[in-house]
Amino acid sequence: MKNYDVTVIGGGPGGLAAAISADNAGASTLLIEREARLGGVLKQCIHDGFGVIRFGEKLSGCEYATRLIRELETTGAELMLSTFVSKAEKQRDGYLLTLTSRGGMERVFTKALVLATGCRERTAKQVAIHGTRPAGVFTAGTAQAFLNVRGQMPGKRCVILGSGDIGLIMARRLTLEGARVLGVYEAKPDPSGLMRNISQCLWDFDIPLHLSKTVTTVHGDERVEAVTVAEVDEKMRPIAGTEEYIPCDTLILSVGLIPENELAESLGVPLDKKTKGPFCDQSYMTLVDGVFSCGNTLHVSDLADYVSESGDAAGRRAASYARRERSLLPVNISRDFSYVVPQYLDPEADLSETVFFFRTAAERKKTKLRILLDGVEIKQKQYNGLRPPEMERIPFDLSGAGLTKDSKLELLMEEVRS
Amino acid sequence: MSVAKKQRKLRKIFGGAMELRPEKGRMHLVGEAKSWDDAVQAGLICAKKGSDIHVVSDVTVKGLEIPPMRVPELRDNALEGLRPDVMIIGAGVTGCAIARELSRLKLNVLLTDKEYDVATHASSRNDGMVHPGIDILPGLLKKKLNTRGNRMYTRLCRELNVPFDRCGQYLCFRQKSVLPLLYLTKPYWLLSGAGSTEVLTKKALKKRETDVSDEAACALYFKSAGSVCPYGLTVALAENAVENGVRLSLDTAVLNMAVEKGEIRSVNTNRGTVYPGLVINAAGVFAEDVAKMAQDRFFSIHPRRGTNAILDKKARRHIVSIYSLMGTQSKSAHTKGGGVVGTVDGNVLVGPDAVETPEKENFATDAESILKTFEKQRHAAPWLTQGDIITYFTGIRAATYEEDFIVEKGRAVRNIIHAAGIQSPGLTAAPAVGEMVAGMVRDYFPKAEKNPSFDPNRKPIVRMAELSFEERAKYIEQNPDYGEIVCRCEEISRGEIIDALRRPVPCSTVDGVKRRCRPGMGRCQGGFCSPLVVKIISETLGIPESEVRKGSEGSRLLMGEKGAHK
Amino acid sequence: MTKELICITCPNSCRISAELGENGTVSVSGNLCPRGEIFASNELTCPKRSLTTTVRTVFGDMPVLPVRTAGEIPKEMIMDAMAVLSGLVIRERVKCGDVVVRSILDTGCDVIATLDL
Cβ A152–B560 below 8 Å, yes or no? Predict the structure, then answer.
């Protein structure tokens, strides 16, 4: 049976970065990808806007993946493609993985595990859309795979529900390919995607964006014939009497992503209800020793660059993983936050490259973010505005701060009056 | 209630809008109702539960146009001039069970369905419960058939290699005081056919079903209840029937019949005219329509909708078998009560409700059904959350006003057998209905010999994820496709999907594949695997990806290659 | 006339107010970096976009190849460029970064593959 220091599961922007950094840190490394090609969802992200932070260039998702793949090729990391992890079991000094591939069944042993399994899309039924179940209802990512990987048109007259980035990108993509996008509907009062995507994907093509409106019902027995949209109240409930019947042949949903953590759960990794990813410390180690998590598995990011950044760190830390007792310090946040990652700090581990990722719970104007240690401010940062769809990042060298397991660390937001 | 009394009651409630006319062998209800609910209520007033004098309703509803039966657009002559001994109309679980029983005989059997696959209506749209028959009045035909059918399940599912879990069912009660009474009912259940029972205190119940509601003070456990995958069973019955010589013709709708002197001469379909010796009406919600074409209409079907929600496999840890709490029944009089069912595939089903509807093929769901079902079932299962829902579906029950099954030879026509009005517990009863109808068929073909090559056993699609490491390795060695995982949620391999496309009952659609081996049944609902499944169907069957359908003929998933529209 | 723009250069999505002066000069505010100024001034005079799409191939394992313009082309030429690219079929294996169309529509801007075929 083969034996590795680090095994990375998932070959997208997080897993590739993790495998590269684990190998660079001197660990014997295995990367397992269930598809035939590396890249994960980036393979179907033909649009640009990737890599501005990591590579200082505006790349397409495919190019971004290619750069990481080229880099991986220069390392000694082993690669298993078209390989599925059927089972992961905890053993005394590591993890036993059962792998399924065309080559047969195989077991490998690894000291540390990096979960980079990405996320899946929320479906129509998970956002309580009712009516019939005809062909022509797609999640945005599935529509994107059909169009960008298989070269097949998912529809010609489309309604898009949800203003998440993939939905916006698909609105432009379908329009470029000759489909008509009748409108993008968003149940929330604010758009979910990045403003630049609202601008370049919708405004550029005169695609209307309808806020505080949702799709309630799908019509059509065989193929989608129409959808009913309705205004929603502040609790997102459809308002009777505001229904509108919109003939179309396709409904595309961009209504949220859910981190894929079934494997993590099978190992008993506790998940944060807010992020739907594992709780972790600044090394991206989950609450189960030796199991690391990164990228969209940990929490849904807006940018692949951030996904890879956490992959870098998770891979590097996994490489130097040695079993010891951890006494974790919780990172306390006020109600103004939707969440923060990491949720814990390990005072015994390296704190010099701590990075906090957070989202605000509500849209805010000028805001001061303060980090308090035992009631004393140790860092602050000012934001011109904060929006829930936009993830914020604060790198912070906490190594000299004198953290102990009994410290109290708090993140607060304060309004700034001008 | 006498006819005169019923007529008075009708007049009292609906004025003169509807009128009951006792005719030879039937109760004819005519007139115009204000609403569909009125029309159904009138039918129920005129009916006597379990009676073989049925209400035949011609009541119309003002402003309501009931959509006609959906018929495939396909027109060909595939069946033209066929002279089968027996033609079965409807390939639901009932029709398929009949077909399999008839394949034991040397008969030429044609099984038809208007849909693209078997089990597309009620047989794939129910909760898969194999009932003990608790709430059916003794004396009804369906009671007898349920009891017999239930007993047949263990062997049937073993022969057909269909997963079946005789997990039992807990009927929970809120009052501790009923506990001693439950002991007293035990002989009754035994006698009535529901089988052996156990009385459980709250503590004992909690030991077996840890997460059942604290509202449950005690429970009665029916050992004979079970859980089966209803479409899995139907597909298996059809496959076994076909392997034993039955001819299955899908996309085949009966359009009309030529009837002369009380005998069906021919049956006209969209795929040619067939001249069957005997017709079996197993047409579900359309059984009345078929009876009418055969000029043997002596009952009416009033469709009743029921919606179920399917929960993520993560919710399965909350439940071992099946349970419901008495006294939380919905206000609707005809609900089976519904409950929470742990399925053989590892999910949880919640539902169903029961709502009268004039539409026989409107499978749309609505938010209210789900909301009400959850509200009700949460009394029994407080752990239910809508956040666990992965999908939901609606099925339509084919109820008669007498609320009993009709399994009998034609009344005005010699060569037809009706298996009609088969609603819940139709899944449980199906094997018994098959047996009963086969018995009647023997009357028509007394000389029919046994089919010497009949094999009751069916080879299933092997589910790789359920095999041991070594067994799985062996399969992959023989066929590497078994090692290529396509559906990550359910861990289904490419090999299993190709197997599904090459079964005795043809399947060429994404939903057909899904019903046979589950890709897309998981929590992502095909988000990841549907492009792959489409590709495999395209490659295996040699059709362009853009022609791969979700289900019926108008349900293509894609709209052609990109750029092709320009 | 002042125009409110969202800068699409980077994920910051700066909200920019830009005004075209009478002598053709552009005054810009709200941008966090100089790239915003360039974006805004282009947007008022000659808006440009990069185009990302796919082109068909003859290969079954990858029926379409992702491509993009190596730089930006005038926004109004986007649909014309799409028409050119939808007529193209790639018959040879190419690498990420290889040019598949030279100077599309004489813009001086190449179209390059963004994935290994």
Answer: yes
Chain C residue with CA closest to A47: the answer is: C52
Who has greater pLDDT, A391 or A109? A109
The answer on A395 and A307 residing in a single domain is no
Rounded Cα distance, C31 and A289, in Å: 45
Q: Are residues C68 and C107 in the same domain?
A: yes
Residues A100 and A32 in one domain: yes
In the block, residue with structure tokens 């047409």: B283
Of A50-64, B40-54, B322-336, the one with minimum mean pLDDT is B322-336
Tell me the pLDDT band of B328, cut-offs 50, 70 and 90: low
Give the start-end residues of each E strand in B73-196. 86-89, 109-112, 129-130, 164-165, 169-173
Nearest CA to B450 among B203, B169, B244? B244
Q: Which chain A positions have a beta carbon within 8 Å of B370's beta carbon?
A: 128
**Residue B247: count of CB within 10 angstroms of its CB:** 16
Q: Between chains, do C86 and B561 touch, taking CB under 8 Å as contact?
A: no
Cβ–Cβ below 8 Å for B389 and A104 = no
Residue B565 contacts C where some CB pair is shorter than 8 Å: no
Grade residue A418 by pLDDT with cuts at 50, 70 and 90.
Answer: low
DSSP 3-state of B25: coil
The answer to which of A31-40, A70-79, A119-128, B166-175 has the lowest mean pLDDT is: A119-128
Number of domains in chain C: 2
What range defines the domain where residue B22 resides?
3-61
pLDDT band at C19 (very low <50, low <70, confident <90, very high): confident
Structural contact between residues B553 and B73, judged by C-beta atoms closer than 8 angstroms: yes
pTM for the whole structure: 0.95
- Comparing CA positions, the residue from B498, B507, B466 lying closest to residue B479 is B498
Range of the domain at C81: 52-113
The number of residues making up chain B comes to 566
pLDDT at A9 over 90: yes
Domain count, chain B: 4
Residue A337's DSSP bridge partners are: A360
- The verdict on residue B556 lying in a domain is no
Cβ-contact B322, B381 below 8 angstroms: no
Contact assessment for residue A293 and residue A277, using Cβ atoms and an 8 Å cutoff: yes
Which structural domain, as residue segments, surrounds residue A334?
328-418
The verdict on whether B131 is a catalytic residue reads yes
ipTM score for this prediction: 0.95
Note whether C56 contacts B561, CB cutoff 8 Å: yes
The domain that holds A169 is classified in CATH as 3.50.50.60
For the residues of chain C, what is the DSSP string, one character each?
-EEEEE--SSTT--EEEEEE-TTS-EEEES-SSHHHHHHHHHHHHS-EE--EEEEEES-TT-SEEEEEESS-EEGGGHHHHHHHHHT-EE-S---TT-EEESSGGGSS--EEE-S--
> Which has the closest alpha carbon to A189: A362, A367, A386, A315?
A362
Nearest to B557 by CA among A143, A105, A317: A143
At B337, the pLDDT band (50, 70, 90 cuts) reads low
| pLDDT tens digits for range B71-120 | 999 999 999 999 999 999 999 999 999 999 999 999 999 999 999 999 99
Q: Is the pLDDT of residue A97 over 70?
A: yes
Neighbouring subunits of B (3+ Cβ pairs under 8 A):
A, C
Tens digits of residue pLDDT in B411-442: 999 999 999 999 999 999 999 999 999 999 99
Band (pLDDT 50/70/90 cuts) for residue A195 is confident
CA gap B493, A11 in Å, rounded = 20
The CATH code of the domain that includes B452 is 3.50.50.60
Q: Helical H runs in B269-336?
A: 287-293
In the predicted structure, residue B278 carries a pLDDT above the cut 80: yes
Q: Which of residues 327-366 of B touch A (CB under 8 A)?
A: 361-366
Cross-chain CB nearest to A105 (options B469, B553, B564): B469
